[in-house]
Design a protein that fits this description.
The chain is α/β, with parallel strands linked by helices. The protein has helices spanning 10-21, 41-46, 62-72, 89-101, 117-120, 130-135, 137-143, 157-184, 192-199, 208-220, 236-246, 252-263, 270-283, and strands at residues 2-6, 25-29, 53-56, 80-83, 105-112, 123-127, 149-153. Helix 8 packs across helix 12 and helix 9 (192-199) packs antiparallel against helix 10 (208-220). The longest helix is centred in the middle third of the chain and has 28 residues, at 157-184.
């Protein structure tokens, strides 16, 4: 089956290679990658036979919006646009409605698997109308491992499920992080590399994330000294919490995990200053002067 892949980053390139190994004819476009088959979206369209399918594997947000709008003005009726990035599901519903008015199909596909997907397959959570999803199933099944693909619902459902998936991931990662933090500060001289290794076998907390953590200790050492204690978030955790609020569903673990990521980005906490100031005001407790490691540090 033919497919036009837009975006040849870590995920897009792996997906393209996996599809080609599976016997599919994948054309590609990425302005930053020389291995592309097309230099423009127009050229990519010309390389595909109708009804065409274009798969966007690019960063969510402005980039996806711009490319999607370009495609909507370029493709023909009956063609399909698939968004495989981590877009907000409400954006996907809007894009689906816009495409539908033009006679174009739009499918949202939540993709999980990272850089390992090429080898083991990509888990796919697909949302959209039955017709285009059914037509593209050979693509989905080639990308996914056995039992790793499902058409989970109508437009937006794929990205909604992927959003929740990533929210759960936040909580799992934070739980591992806190457990190893406790062991790091314990009275025992524990080896986290050794412990993460044995937990992979027979333990109720074994998981792929734990395997990845074990690999990280192997690569960076048991202290992870060359990794800065700064944890980014790409938005899905925030969206998950927002939807939980809208639905009156308590998600304390996911919320705490997101706030822990915020906390990792600021060594000097304003909240701690507020608490210290209040303790001084109501109880006369002494406040500790800020000690700077070097001259010229930001006094804030």
């Amino acid at each position: 089956m033919q497919l036009g892949m837009i975006g040849l980053g870590r995920m897009g390139s792996g997906m393209t290679e996996r599809l080609r190994k599976g016997g599919h004819d994948v054309k590609s476009y990425d302005p930053n990658v020389e291995s592309r088959t097309a230099a423009t979206l127009e050229e990519l369209k010309s390389e595909l036979e109708a009804p065409r399918a274009f798969w966007m594997m690019i960063p969510a947000g402005t980039v996806t919006e711009d490319v999607c709008q370009q495609l909507l003005g370029l493709v023909d009726e009956g063609d399909t646009i698939v968004d495989g990035g981590n877009s907000n599901f409400r954006d996907s519903q809007r894009r689906h409605a816009d495409a539908q008015q033009r006679g174009i199909h739009f499918v949202d596909a939540g993709v999980s698997g990272g850089i390992w997907g090429l080898e083991v397959g990509f888990c796919l959570m697909v949302g959209g109308d039955d017709e285009p999803v059914k037509r593209l199933e050979p693509i989905f099944t080639a990308l996914a491992p056995e039992n790793g693909y499902a058409h989970v619902g109508p437009s937006g459902a794929g990205h909604f499920v992927k959003m929740v998936h990533n929210g759960i991931e936040y909580g799992l990662m934070q739980s591992y992080a806190e457990g190893f933090e406790i062991m790091e500060h314990s009275e025992f001289d524990l080896d986290p590399h050794q412990i993460s290794g044995i937990w992979r076998n027979g333990s109720v907390v074994r998981s792929w994330l734990l395997e990845l953590l074990h690999a990280a200790f192997e690569q960076h050492g048991s202290k992870l000294d060359d990794i800065a204690p700064y944890v980014e978030d790409s938005g899905e955790g925030r969206w998950t919490i927002n939807e939980a609020i809208n639905e009156n569903v308590p998600v304390p673990v996911i919320a705490a995990a997101l706030f822990a990521r915020f906390q990792s980005r600021d060594e000097i906490k304003f909240s701690a200053r507020v608490a210290a100031a209040l303790r001084q005001q109501f109880g006369g407790h002494a406040v500790r002067a800020l000690e700077r490691a070097k001259a010229g540090d930001d006094p804030r």
